[in-house]
Amino acid sequence: MSLDVSLQTDPGAISDDPVIEARRQIEICNACRYCEGFCSVFPAITRDKVFTDGDVTQLANLCHNCRGCYYACQYTAPHEFDLNLPAALAAARVESWERFAWPAGLAHLFQTRGEALAVALVAGCALLFALIAMLPGEGAGFYAWLSHGAMVAIFLPAFLLPLLAIALGLRRYWQEVGGRPVAVADLVAAFGSAARLKNLSGGQGQGCNFEKEDRYSDARRHAHHAVMYGFLLCFAATCVATILHYGFAMKAPYGFWSLPKLLGVPGGVLLVLGCAGMLALRSRADPALGAPGRSSAERAFIWLLGFVGLTGLLLYALRDTWLTGPMLALHLGSVLAFFLLTPYSKMAHGFYRLAALVREAQIVRTSAAADRSEA
């Protein structure tokens, strides 16, 4: 198959600017269209001939880095076009997260020094909780080491301020990609796609090529499902415990057959298994197809999230022993570090990719309505 496209293909055409380079490769893909059925990115590419910076940002965040297009492409190196669309979109995607982050600069710091920063923050937060636990507590269970009031005073701002930072970033994203007021149908389509991880299933639902090169696998999709639903179960357990505490005066500790534990324990198990699976898959994946210089941040996010689940399970298993206090400090320290790093770690990708799915559903719905009106 030959490609008739009037693009500069000498080495000087390849730019160090992530957005410019992603745009160059997108334009070549739009001329070829061999991968049109692979995922949501390629049908979105075919809608336009000229791509603004906002279009590139939207396409980059719509990409889930399944890498199938790379292994199917005939224009990868040593071809003069030198295409590597997964890496180009990954670089543009990370650039957008760093640019939208608030306060500015923190995302780039974590992306380039992720593991060292995560370890230092977990250790510092754990030490803080260990010192607080030396003060007299109140109540039973964990509250004997750390009072409920102290937990609320620490974690409420640590939860709300990162949410504010993410909201500001999403607002900037929505403005750049030309987002419009969202309809219920857009949210239903986006959440449905996210719940199934549709873009990790490959063009024909056979899986992606993340760790198996030209072979298809659902392993990455399954690991992501475990992490996503494990996190949601843990979050639901926390919400239920809050409702029981304030709404029904039912204070912790809760027994195993209580709703917080029935949600939290399976959630923790899924988190640990999913994160372990993702780290294993990353060890077999080609780093040249991801965002350059960001592997430390991606690993840090995965092990930090898994560490939160693991320490939570160990804390429950070691309750009422002399290890409860140290394990509580370690678990709460990792949770606090996770919250504080959320807007700047890859945890933010869940918010931006959901926004990209909403925007894509919005565009598809608007185009369908226009086609019906013309008909």
From TrEMBL:
The keyword Membrane applies. Keywords: Membrane, Transmembrane, Transmembrane helix. It comes from Paracoccus aurantiacus. The keyword Transmembrane applies. InterPro entries: Citrate_utilization_prot_B, NarG-like_sf. The chain crosses the membrane at residues 116-136, 142-170, 226-250, 262-281, 301-318, 324-344. Coiled coil: none annotated. This is Tricarballylate utilization 4Fe-4S protein TcuB. The lineage of its organism: Bacteria, Pseudomonadati, Pseudomonadota, Alphaproteobacteria, Rhodobacterales.
